[in-house]
Fold this protein.
Amino acid sequence: MNNHDLIEAARSWAHGSYPTEAAVELLIHHGTWLRRPDFQAVAVDLEEPFAVIDWQAAHDALTLGHLPCSGGEAAMLRIALSIAYALPVELGPALTSLDTTNLGYVVAAIRHANGNRAAWIPAQGGQA
């Protein structure tokens, strides 16, 4: 399955649950996790037509060091895990490890989780 198909399959699976949709969109916009073969191997189950994300498996793999990554990448995954699966995240360290673009994605994810699917539409002059 190519990346575009995987993204659409994950969106289809998440549809109907604002928090799950928000977490999936956060991973999509961040652009790292869903593209990584090691993440896919431990946390994505392809159940046509869906790509089901196993949030607990992703958390366990990250915690055990099976998904080596930067601090910002780990923060984005931990925030997504918190939004989708209610796993605790220390927001102070997580947020301060993000650049402006990724912080914007987190804000959009929070707004989406609260019911605003339009949160991902870029502000005038912004980028998607």
Q: What stands out?
A: The two ends are 24 Å apart (CA to CA). Residues 37 and 50 are 17 Å apart (CA to CA). Confidence is low (pLDDT under 50) at residues 124-128.
